UniProtKB/TrEMBL annotation:
Species this protein is from: Bracon brevicornis
Protein name: Uncharacterized protein
Lineage, highest ranks first: Eukaryota, Metazoa, Ecdysozoa, Arthropoda, Hexapoda
GO biological process, one term: protein N-linked glycosylation
Membrane-spanning ranges: none
GO molecular function: carbohydrate derivative binding; glutamine-fructose-6-phosphate transaminase (isomerizing) activity
């Protein structure tokens, strides 16, 4: 949601696209302690299950920034 995180050489930088760092709605950075298996497969028994259940979120992330509901338009890169 308007934040971009970059990790380079062990340093985390967060860029706020539309908000200032003083914005009270800016998120707090939280460090998670997870095993690689949890990151890769999560709580699913199989990767296919994970992919199936993550599809709605993947579609939303794919369309983010391309759908404009205010003026009912769609923006696709490379298409005039």
């Amino acid at each position: 949601d308007d934040d971009v995180a970059a990790v380079k050489e062990g340093t985390l930088t967060i860029h706020r696209l539309k908000r200032s760092m003083d914005d009270p709605h800016a998120r707090e950075i939280t460090t998670l302690k997870m095993e690689i298996q949890q990151i890769m497969k999560g709580n699913y028994d199989y990767f296919m299950q994970k992919e199936i259940f993550e599809q709605p979120e993947s579609v939303v992330n794919t369309m983010r920034g391309r759908l404009n509901f205010e003026n009912n338009s769609v923006t696709l890169g490379g298409i005039s």
